[in-house]
Design goal:
- By secondary structure, the protein is an alpha+beta fold.
- The chain has two domains: about 190 residues, Fructose-1,6-Bisphosphatase, Chain A, domain 1 (2-Layer Sandwich), CATH 3.30.540; about 120 residues, 3-Layer(aba) Sandwich (D-Maltodextrin-Binding Protein, domain 2).
- A seven-stranded mixed beta sheet has the order 3-4-5-6-9-10-11, sandwiched between helices. Strands 13-12-14-16-15 form a five-stranded mixed beta sheet, sandwiched between helices. A two-stranded antiparallel sheet has the order 1-2.
- Strand 10 and strand 11 form a beta hairpin.
- Bound molecules: adenosine monophosphate and magnesium ion (MG).
Length: about 325
């Protein structure tokens, strides 16, 4: 099947993310992967900055009035270690944008520091950096938000062999959704035959397949286990990094994902780019998303999401049962 809806924003996203994935592959091949530690103690790599610069450059060319709200900024380039990083980033970006210079690359990265407005894009150049460093799952995440609602969402998962399975390798998976039109997946290397995404039809809570983070610091495992016990769901959760989890759920490969702050860091708040690009993909595939009270997640609150306690992502049929279990524990 070919791509059924060719709205220009979705086409732009597909082109940009396919190129971003090639850029990351080039970096991995020539320079390998290593990380710096940011002020918030999370890791960042050459690839994060290079992808943000590349997509910000294309966005300004094609949708010049749309602001970009993205994870990275150029402040780290001011340190001596950061200046070397900028040199490497520029070297790789130049292979795709010949006019790139260190100064312009830093400026393109900083285009992502814009404020949210009536219509804006959000991006996480590498979501799941720890998975990326381990050679496991990660995602390039991009979404368009209009009047507080996600309108287009894209996830490029270079290490996801098939949308329905957590297996690593192959040509990678590209998922795209357009509000009201549907969601599809295809090969990231050859994005031609788009297939529709559909969540699972599972409704017996004891058969529910859960997803979880690989990193124990990114979730409260104990609470997830208690919810599973309440539902008498005993299948081992599928551990995966990044928003690739949303793709697996949207394709019917899993049924329930709980995103909640880990016990040692209860103050952790989700950023809009960590959720919005995947949320529309799950919803257009027939899934459901809410906070732990059952309220819709508000995508109009700026860079940081304000959700009550955590985010529940399900195949819709199991949503009420999961909410009930959350209330009880
Ligand atoms: P994962 O790929 O499941 O490991 O999740 C990656 C995401 O975890 C990042 O995008 C962060 O938003 C999020 N994260 C980082 N620290 C925490 C924390 N202490 N609690 C919950 N989520 C976190
Ligand atoms: Mg992230």
């Amino acid at each position: 099947m070919s791509f059924p809806v060719l709205i220009p924003e979705a086409e732009f996203g597909i082109r940009s993310l396919c190129q971003a994935a090639r850029l990351i592959e080039q970096i991995r091949r020539e320079a390998g992967v290593s990380s710096l530690t940011k002020m918030d103690r999370s890791p960042v790599t050459v690839a994060d900055f290079a992808v943000q610069a590349l997509v910000a450059y294309h966005l300004a060319k094609e949708f010049s009035r749309d602001p970009l709200v993205a994870e990275e900024n150029s402040s780290i380039f001011k340190t001596s270690e950061g200046a070397k990083i900028l040199e490497t980033v520029t070297h790789f970006v130049k292979q795709f944008i010949p006019e790139a210079r260190a100064g312009s690359v830093a400026e393109w990265v900083d285009r992502g520091t814009a404020d949210p407005s009536d219509r804006f894009w959000v991006m996480d150049p590498i979501d799941g950096t720890k998975g990326f460093l381990r050679g496991e799952q990660y995602a390039i995440a991009l979404a368009l938000i209009e009047k507080g609602k996600v309108k287009v969402g894209l996830l490029a998962c270079p290490n996801l062999k098939d949308a329905r399975s957590p297996e690593i390798g192959g040509e990678g998976t590209l998922a795209v959704a357009v509000r009201g039109q549907g969601g599809w997946h295809t090969s990231l290397k050859q994005p031609k035959g788009f297939r529709p995404l559909r969540v699972s039809r599972r409704q017996k809570s004891s058969e529910a397949v859960f997803l979880s983070s690989v990193e124990s610091r990114h979730t409260d495992r104990d609470r997830v286990e208690r919810v599973m016990n309440k539902l008498e769901a005993h299948t081992q959760p599928i551990a995966m990094d990044s928003l690739a989890k949303y793709v697996l759920l949207a394709s019917g490969g899993a049924d329930i994902l709980l995103r909640l702050p880990s016990a040692p860091q209860p103050q952790h708040r989700e950023c809009i780019w960590d959720h919005a690009p995947g949320a529309i993909i799950v919803e257009e595939a027939g899934g459901k998303i809410s906070d732990f009270e059952g309220n819709a997640v508000d995508d109009s609150t700026g860079r940081i999401l304000t959700v009550s306690r955590g985010i529940l992502v399900t195949n819709a049929r199991l949503h009420a049962a999961a909410l009930e279990a959350l209330k009880e524990i």
